[in-house]
Design goal:
46% of the residues lie in helices and 15% in strands. With 151 residues, it is an alpha/beta fold. α1 links the parallel β1 and β2. The chain has a single domain, classed as Rossmann fold. The chain has a 6-stranded mixed sheet, with helices on both faces.
Length: 151
């Protein structure tokens, strides 16, 4: 099992929770980003900096993750790709994305894109707050307890 983070779009508070979990449970973790990120010095956590092109980080994660891995992303198309290979995806707000939820979220995303293209303002998500961090940490703990087999 490995944890993959779509790091450019993941709030710092979520990255901090993931760093603690990776270190405590001794789970390899890779942060993938378009630019350098602050990283703790530990052998369990690596940073991959990809070129700044559109979806480069997403492509890297989708190409390298495997069944049984955990991917943290709020990018629904990326979640759809990793779920297809048997990885588990959760958002920084703690929602698990599986085949069914990914399909419904892709449909909603496409619908909202159509609304925006036609000039209707749909707004964005509310700001990330302490309750979101708490919800993410709880979801992560449940998933890691279920998925991770200590060595």
């Amino acid at each position: 099992m490995k944890i993959w983070i779509d790091a450019d779009a993941t709030p710092r508070a979520v990255r901090d929770v993931l760093i603690k979990a990776s270190t405590k449970r001794v789970i390899p973790m890779t942060m993938v980003a378009n630019r350098s990120q602050q990283m703790p010095k530990t052998k369990w956590i690596t940073l991959v900096v990809v070129p700044g092109g559109f979806d480069e980080a997403d492509d890297y994660i989708a190409d390298h993750c495997q069944a049984g891995d955990l991917v943290i992303t709020q990018d629904i198309p990326l979640a759809a790709r990793v779920v297809e290979v048997g990885a588990v995806a959760i958002t920084p707000r703690g929602s698990q994305l599986d085949e069914e939820t990914v399909r419904s979220r892709l449909s909603m995303r496409d619908f909202k894109e159509d609304l925006r293209a036609s000039g209707v303002m749909t707004g964005g998500p509310p700001p990330f707050g302490p309750k979101d961090k708490q919800k993410f940490a709880a979801a992560l703990d449940r998933l890691l307890t279920k998925m991770h087999k200590p060595r």
